[in-house]
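lol ok so funny story. i was supposed to be doing the assay writeup but got distracted and ended up predicting the structure for this chain instead. priorities right. anyway since i did it might as well share w the group, maybe its usefull for someone
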Amino acid sequence: MLKKIISIGELIGIYALIAYASLTSGDPDAPKLKIFSLPHFDKVVHFIMYLVLSIAIIRFFRKRNDIHKHLFPKVFILAVTYGGLMEILQHYCTQNRQADWLDMLANTLGVISGYFLMKIIFQNKPISA
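and the output, tada:
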């Protein structure tokens, strides 16, 4: 039971962090690291955020010692739908953020990669919380 509570807390925290990162802007006067000015670096950030989200979703729903294919639709729907919602909210609810199909692609690729990464790493092994 405690593992499930920790797992749901982890999942909510990741969802909240993604919402904050997606819907707020940093301080425009703050110094920026050079890595943030690389072309399309934000796509790498999107990929990583949704890779981590998919891993958290798997950790929450997983009950067996391996990752079955029935888990993929849950992970895909929960994470990709959330990514789409964030893009829609960026478009309609922020003044200096905009929806981007490439962000959505990066989100989706992150979700798929997270699922297959977990499948490869933990195939036939239990995931400890």
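The CA atoms of residues 65 and 125 lie 5 Å apart. Helices lie at 2-23, 41-61, 71-93, 101-121.
back to the writeup now i swear
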